[in-house]
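Side project, low priority. Logging it here so it doesn't get lost.
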Amino acid sequence: MNDPSQTAALPQPLGEVEGGQPIEREELLQPHPGEEKLLKRLYHWTMALAEKPYAPWALGLIAFAESAFFPVPPDVILIPMSLARPKRAWLYALICTVGSVAGAVLGYAIGALLYDTVGKWLITLYGYGPKMEAIKLTYAQWGWAVILFKGLTPIPFKIVTITSGLLGYNLPLFVLLCTITRGARFLIEALLMHRFGDAFKTLLERYFGTFVIVLVALVVIGFYIAVRII
């Protein structure tokens, strides 16, 4: 027969504690209580901010600035606002689109009129200075595709707007392409929030830390692609 002392020393199976009491497997993956409290506070602060009367103005302002010079995408406010009020997600997407296209025109003007000062500094800041000749050749043949593709991705859109102005890309066509690509991006997000808002909100409340990490990772990846690959 087995020695009882040896049996008692055996490791407990995953999901059980001593005495055979089951525990939830997800509890093994829960963050530290201090971290969890901080993330919950950050989540509730974000959702409360999304419901403020001035939130749509802030959304439009960030969308405007991001297309010309600001590094943070408007999605970080669009998503929480759409979750807080799913029925208004379409309106928020429209605000983002209008603000982003208006900011794109500002970026275009910076490239066309202020490239030697502001425009060149921004282009260099994002690592595109040595690549301008290659970008000019790409724009000559595939300018429309560059605008459409980059407007849908985390790649900094200001690079597109400033470069378009610098190279004298057709302005009406530029505005049309910006409207299509930015509108598609924000409307897709609005559609997802409107359709799956309640379920996504539940997941966000539970895994807000993961959401923050993924969002930051997307922004970092966008900058990496902008600087190293394209």
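Brief comment: The first helix runs from residue 4 to 8.
Revisit when time allows.
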